[in-house]
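Hi, here's the filled form for the chain we discussed.

Project: internal
Contact: R.S.
Residues: 373
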Amino acid sequence: MSASALSVRDLRVARRSRSGEFVLEIDALDLAPGEVLAVLGPNGAGKSTLLRSLAGLAPREGGDVVSHAEGPVTMVFQRPIAFAGTVRQNLRVALLGRGLSRDEERRREAEALERFGIARHAGRRAGTLSGGELRRLALARAFVLRPGVLLLDEPFDDLDAAGQESLSLDLQRAIRETGVAAAVVTHDLRRALLLADRIAVLLDGRLAMCGDRDAVLERPVSLEVARVVGMSNLIPGSLVARGGEGERVVEVDPQHRIPVASPRESGDLAAAGDAVYAGIRPEHLKIDVGRGDGVAIGKARVRAIVSDGALATVTVEWAGHALRAHLLAGRGIARTLSTGDPVLLEVRPEEVHLIARDAREPRPERTASNSRW
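And the returned structure, exactly as it came back:
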């Protein structure tokens, strides 16, 4: 059996509407058994079109989509549907024409219902299920087929935080136990990271980046990809070499500099004098609490704090730029910070990512209150 469960080569799909033509073009994409690929991108990037193409539901103008998996390619749509009848009958409909014995059908039905926590609803009319229960029924109906490739379009849509977490754990377990290859389309980065082994970023119908989860999150290849994968702190400056061998900083202005790792440690190809963005993920921007977690980059002031009960996002003003830091809500400094508080920021050089910048482009305007610092 091939190492790839699903292979895409030279795919081209054109979708025409009154607003114009949209073209999806994918040179190469592979799904491995037991792997979860999260497909990210802004609205209109072609995420759902890609998924439908992999399922054979969108007419192709060129290229090949080949499944090497033993089981079928199965898709679960964004809006789950239920057939008339009971939950168990919904699973039985999926197995019609499969040539299975009645005992085998019962075994598969019981396994799928138990896997997604709806066995107790087996005799219930499917039309009476809640939104979250309908999603679980749709997944059970997919897994009863023993798929080789599973395609999920926004599987967490309209679920609350607890429902999302619970469903993600059940999905993780099902994928691990069955070895199915899965592609998950979502607009929500945090939900994608609950499942993803790899990330593919679509922009304007093209695959802008695809790779291991952490590589894409921490080393995006462009400004656009960085924004999609949550690297929200993108600070323009110039790369400067100074001091000892390999010591480099991004100079934002004469008073503000950001240390970066040596080329040997970072693997980047930027040279002294290059116009760059210093990319820092919010979880890597540190607010100094006296532990010496990184290298100090200067004073900032808290502009806003937003918490969802688990994560606190702190927006600070530094060198005229609005930067974001993530803290655990209700713990440590997150309990005491208030809007207007002065803070000291730190970064670790190895957690600063350089992205090439066109030196001719205008830099973002600074905030008026930058003169405080």
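Let me know if anything looks off before we file it.
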